[in-house]
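Exercise 7. Predict the joint structure of the components listed below.
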Amino acid sequence: MSADPYKVLGVSSNASDDEIKKAYRTLAKKYHPDINPGNKEAERKMNEINAAYDQIKNPQQNATGFGGFGGFGSNTRYGSGFGGGFHADSEEESTSLRAAMNYIRARHFAEALNALEGVPVSERNARWHYLCSLANYGQGNRIVALEHAQTAVRLEPNNMEYRSLLEELSQGGSFYQSYSQGFPTAGFGGSPCLWLCAASLLCNFCRCV
Amino acid sequence: MFGYIIANSESLSEEDKQRYKAVYCGLCSALKARHGQFGRMTLNYDMTFLILVLNSLYEPEMSKGEERCIVHPCSKHCYVSNDITEYASDMNVALAYLNQLDNWHDDKNILSFIYARILRKKYEKISKKYPRQCQAMGRCIAKLSELEKSGLQNPDVGSRIFGELMGEIFAFREDRWTDSLWAMASCLGEFIYILDAVIDLPRDMKKHRYNPLTSLKKAGRSDGYFKDILTMLIGNCTMDFEKLPLVEDVSIMRNILYSGVWTKYELEQAKRARRKGEKR
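Solution:
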C-alpha cells in the first residue's frame, strides 16, 4: 500500500465519492483482464486500481492496531478504534466479566455471552451491558447490541468508552440521516405503486408472508 | 415481506422514471418469456432493485425492445433486458414458489397450494441452475417458519435469517464484489424484516399472531425506538452500498434506499395518526 491511492485513480484527494467511483470504473474498463487477455501489464495495473479503490473505500481493512473488532460479522465497518480502548481490568471486576472480555478479545462471542449470562441480575452494571453489547455485535445481533449500549450509557453517561461504542453502533444511522435529508419523505402525495399499478393487481393473491 | 424495495416516484426525475419503468418492464417480459403468464404473476419491485444493482456493477450489454403487454394494452412501451434480468426473474419465481409452499404448510391455504403446484416444475429447473441460491432460500424460509412456531422474542434472529436470504440472492457471482454485495443485501434484508414486523405489529398483537417485536412493545418501547432500530439497520446497508463502485442508475438506487423503502412505513404511520385524530 505504498502509492497514493488517489493518484492511482487519477483524482484529487478531496474528490467526491461519486468522482472516485467514476474514475475507478473508467480505469477498470480500460484495464479489465477480459479486454486485455494475457497482458501482464494490464493485470498489474488492474490490481493496483483495485487496491487503491479498496484503500479509499475500506480504510479499516488496512488499519493496524487492536486486531479485535475489525471484521465483526460479515463486514469490516467497525475496524479501527472499536474496542481498542479496552481498559485494563480493574481489581474488583468479577471473574465472569473478565472471562467475557477475554472471550470477546479472542472473538469467541458465544462463549462471552455464556459467561455474561452467569452474572446474577443484581450485579448487571453498565460494564456488563457494555460487554453484552460487544459480544452481541460480534455475533451479528445488532438490535440487542444497540439496546445494551444504550443502557450502558444511560447507567454511566460519563464513560467515554461506552459512549464511543454507542456512537460506533449508531454510525450507520447517523450517516444515513445526514445523507437522506436530500430526499423527500416517501409515501405522500401518491400511491406507493406508482404508474405500474396494474401489474401489482395481477399478483394480489400471491402477496405473501 | 416482499414489495418494500420500491422507488419514491415523486422525487425521481422524468428520465429516471422512464428508466426504472423500462427495467421493471424488462423483468416482467423476462418472467413471461421464461416462466409464462403464471410466472409473470410473481412480479414485484424487489427484484427490480436487484437488477439495477447488478447491472450497474457488472455493466453487461442491455438489449432494448418495445412491446405491448396485457398489463398496459393501450400503449407500446420500452423495456431493457439481459442475463441479469433473466437471473432476477428466476430468483423471483423460485422465491414465490417456496413462499407459497410455506404458506400451504403453515396455513393450509388452498390457493397457495394450487399456485405452488403450478410453479413447481419451473422451480425444479431453476434450482438445478442455481442450487446455492435455492438451497439458501429454502433453508431460510424453513428457519423463519420454525422461528414463528417457537414464538421466540428476539428480533435479531429473524432479521439475520432474512438477511442471509437476501445476501445469497444478491451474490450473483463469485468475484471481488461478492462480499460487499452480500453485506449490503443482508443488511437490507435485516431492515426489511424489522420494517415488516413494525408495520404488522398492531394487527399481529390484536390477532395474537407471532411478531418478533411484541415483547419490546409490551415493555413500553415507543415508535421512535423502533424507528431508531430501522435507521441503524438501513444505515448499515447504505454504508455498504456506498462502498460499491456504482455509477449507472445510482440516483434511482439511492432514491430507493434513502426514501422509497420507507413508503409503506410512512403510509402506515400516517394512517395511524389519522385514526388517532378521529378518535379524539
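Discussion. Chain B has a mean pLDDT of 89.
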